[in-house]
Amino acid sequence: MRNLLLCTILLAATTNSPSAAIAQGAEKPNVVLMMVDNLGWGELGVYGGGELRGAATPRLDALAAEGMRLLNFNVEPQCTPSRSALMTGRRPIRSATTKVVWGVPYGMVNWEITMAELFSEAGYATGMFGKWHLGDIPGRFPTDQGFDEWYGVANTTDESEYSSQFQFDASVSGQPMIQEARRDESPRDVKPYDIASRREIDSELIARAIDFMKRSVADDQPFFAFVPFTQPHLPTLPHPDFDGITGNGHYADVLAEIDFRSGQILDSIEELGIEDDTIVIWLSDNGPEYFRPWHGTAGPWRGAYFTAWEGSLRVPFLIRWPGRIGAGTTSNEIVHLVDMLPTLGRVAGYEVPDDRIIDGVDQLDFFLGQQTRSNREGFIVYNNDDVYGYKWRNWKLHLIELDNMNSEPRPLNVPRVFNLITDPKEEYEIQEEATWILPVIFEKIVEFESTLVEEPPVPFGVLEPYEPPKN
User: Fold this and answer.
1) Measured between alpha carbons, how far is 384 from 307 in angstroms, rounded to an integer?
2) For residues 144 and 107, what is the distance between their CA atoms, to the nearest angstrom?
3) How far apart are the C-alpha atoms of 299 and 148, rounded to whole Å?
4) Given the DSSP bridges, would you call strands 386-392 and 395-401 parallel, antiparallel or unpaired?
5) Residues 133-188: pLDDT tens digits?
6) Which of 179, 283, 323, 456 makes an SS bond possible with 187, Cβ 3.0 to 4.6 Å?
7) Which keywords does UniProt give here (predicted)?
């Protein structure tokens, strides 16, 4: 791998292309990946929100101007599936991580190879500061899965409400906790995760992430900092310093806080003098909240998370790498969350696993402007364990419809097809104009599902240690 990387750098240095710029910069750029929790496409100023949503977002708008903004970046419908897809580069149907669950062993088995493990093998310091939601049993915590250190919550932010709910009984349910751990250590409880700490936790995550970056720079070691915010997931309550700051309610206050916290990370990168050698990625894990009064907006798109509507799948995505990724660029090309693992592998120098199916595709040349088209035309849409549809080019095919997370799924006798350019709300099916799409997309669905026969998925609820059956 070392010789391959050296050859790539020498070849790039002889060409007048963005690849040459990579060779002239850090051999192993730092990577800071900030992920917010359930923030819809339409919230930031650069996506049509900002002041229209009650709070300007100047820091994130500026980040978009300094790098690339995707208009068609896609995730999974729920929290656990999206985080699994990011960490493994694999669709969650393969990893038994297709849904949010309670009360049973769940999460990403230790057999899976994570982005953090790959960064670590490539010589990076790895730190995670925030919400995990990929398992809360030994073998499945962040520090079991490649992170050198972690501070945050293992599960969902809903848990912060438990202790203040009607007839709460910690003796039977347990008290949700904020935890911390070092690699291969059992997590240590720091303090209860309740409404008071829910308001303050994101400020703590940012402080710890900044400290991690400072220590890594002092040690002259490249780093991967994963910062999964807990905001704006319900209960959408701001830090006391931001409570009432906008005059437009708690959601707007939280939006202002998210912008400020993101700016703190960006300021620290600048103060450390590592801007040119650091890739910054900022994205959301899901579409907006559904429950009022915490609900958000997906802008022109229909729906909220837990569905297959475009508002569930399409979220904000910003990426900056000065001198490599063109400033102020935008694209409506389709990119999926699973693409992050192979894309970052090329800049970090890690090998993408070849002993299992990886669904992500390398998008580095697209990000660098070496090509105008994404390396992806679409993807199958799973919700829980069922195929809800397929998104391909500007088309969306639905096999099952779910209006919102509390409604009943409706299997469709005849698939519905929408054109997302002419009908972003997916309201007016154009069956007569688009029947040619059906055989094209069904062939793609069959092709994907055949890979589940080739490599059977991890069984749901399996305990550690897990090893796949021998073929």
Assistant:
1) 10
2) 12
3) 38
4) antiparallel
5) 999 999 999 999 999 999 999 999 999 999 999 999 999 999 999 999 999 899 99
6) 179
7) Calcium, Hydrolase, Metal-binding, Signal
Q: In this predicted structure, what is the pLDDT of residue 429? A: 80
Give the pLDDT confidence of 230-266 residue by residue, as tens digits.
999 999 999 999 999 999 999 999 999 999 999 999 9
Distance CA 128, CA 393 (A): 34
In this structure, what token pair is assigned to residue 250?
């708690």
Query: What 3 state SS string does the chain have?
Result: CHHHHHHHHHHHHCCCCHHHHHHHCCCCCEEEEEEECCCCCCCCHHHCCHHHHCCCCHHHHHHHHHCEEEEEEECCCCHHHHHHHHHHCCCHHHCCCCCCCCCCCCCCCCCCCCHHHHHHHCCCEEEEEEECCCCCCCCCCHHHCCCCEEEEECCCHHHHHHHHCCCCCHHHHCCCEEEEEECCCCCEEEEECCHHHHHHHHHHHHHHHHHHHHHHHHCCCCEEEEEECCCCCCCCCCCHHHCCCCCCCHHHHHHHHHHHHHHHHHHHHHHCCCHHHEEEEEEECCCCCCCCCCCCCCCCCCCCCCCCCHHHHEEEEEEECCCCCCCCEEECCCEEHHHHHHHHHHHHCCCCCCCCCCCCCCCHHHHCCCCCCCCCCEEEEEECCEEEEEEECCEEEEEEECCCCCCCCEEEEEEEEEECCCCCCCCCCCCCCCCCHHHHHHHHHHHHHHHHHHCCCCCCCCCCCCCCCCC
Which domains occur in the chain, in start order?
25-164+175-373 (3.40.720.10), 379-454 (3.30.1120.10)
Identify the CA nearest to 23 among candidates 275, 213, 277: 277
Question: How many of the other CB atoms lie within 10 Å of CB of 402?
Answer: 22
Sheet holding 410-419, edge to edge: 378-383, 386-392, 395-401, 410-419
Q: Tell me the mean pLDDT in the region 437-462.
A: 96
pLDDT of residue 17: 41
